[in-house]
Write a structure and sequence with these properties.
Elements (H helix, E strand, L loop, with lengths): L1 H54 L5 H12 L13 E3 L6 E3 L21
Antiparallel strand pairs: 1-2
């Protein structure tokens, strides 16, 4: 009788854990879908901006590729990502991370290098 009660409790706990995991997986799946939609929209916007710029200027695909490689390499690593760059805090002069909004040492606000992050 005691063993049966113990087993039922363990089964109930396992069922709750499974339901929680399923709920968490569903939330993550929705988050991934939202991120994919966002990335698709940004890609579309970037393509539209590039085509408008190319049509209204003398810029070429080679110019774009060179600029992409230049920006990619600013963090010292050409890896297809905008990396973190070290910045000097305007208040205390210590090095801080370009993705932060404030200095980790003194809390002073850090001006972003770009509106696009990194």
């Amino acid at each position: 009788m005691l063993w049966e009660s113990y087993q039922q409790t363990r089964i109930a706990d396992a069922e709750r854990t499974a339901e929680s995991a399923e709920s968490k997986a569903d939330r993550y799946a929705r988050a991934v879908q939202d991120l994919q939609r966002h990335a698709d929209r940004l890609s579309l916007a970037c393509q539209a901006m590039w085509e408008l710029l190319r049509e209204c200027s003398d810029l070429t695909e080679d110019d774009l590729e060179k600029k992409i490689l230049e920006i990619d390499g600013r963090d010292g690593c050409v890896d297809g990502k905008i990396g973190v760059q070290p910045l000097d805090c305007p208040a205390c002069g210590r090095k801080t991370n370009s993705k932060r909004d404030s200095c980790i040492m003194c809390g002073a606000p850090i001006k972003r290098l770009s509106q696009f992050g990194g």
